[in-house]
Amino acid sequence: MPAELGNFENRPHSKDLVLRRLVKAPRALVFEVFTKADHLAQWWAPKPLTVPRCEVDLRPGGIWRYTFRAPEGWEHDCVATYREVEPPRLLVMEASALDPSGKPFFLLRQTVELEARGDETALTLSFKVLQAHPGSEPMLEGMEAGTRMTLDNLQEYLTKIV
After folding, report:
1. Domains plus CATH for the chain?
2. Does the CA dihedral 69-70-73-77 come out positive or negative?
3. pLDDT, tens digit, 9 for 90 and up, residues 135-157
């Protein structure tokens, strides 16, 4: 299938994604691990990538910056702007992976919804492709598998801190 490039704010993109998980931790803790840099650095990357840099300014208009690092040493910078912050149930942000010159490969609306279920939390993580630029294809192609691995990391991390 040819690459889908351009503006997708008002139309579907083949890589729009919704993932759901029931995680074994209370909602307040799940919200915390999604919003504090020291937690995010422990799990927010598909293995074998790590997050050596993570900065969070948690407020509407605030910025979340982080860097993925591969075992081979290459790094990839990412940035997200918080649009909605409603503790402990909702985060909406616009997120991008940046090329070496700092231009975004793509722009995604990323939504994290958390619903309390006793001592567990129903998590819905949605990605809406808003813009896709040349060079975004490999990242968007791997987004679903990478996000599933990252959510596996989340569950593993939560078992260590609950």
Report:
1. 14-135+147-161 (3.30.530.20)
2. negative
3. 999 999 999 999 999 999 999 99
